[in-house]
Design goal:
Elements: H1 5-17, H2 23-30, H3 47-64
Helix pairs in contact: 1-3
Amino acid sequence: NFVDVRRWLIDKGLAAAGITPTAQDLVDIGRDVVPGSLRSDSVHLNASGYAALGAQCLAAEITARGW
């Protein structure tokens, strides 16, 4: 069982978090990197990133898969 959270964060994370992309976010997305507005450093998510990931991405996947 696998959920590609990296892809989801790049493609849908900012909208799910209600964040308007910054110029750097657009550069990050163009480079296939999780947008900086969702990260606290180069690896870890910030509160907005974790909230969007848990409340929207993972909750939807868990429901859809009947877990």
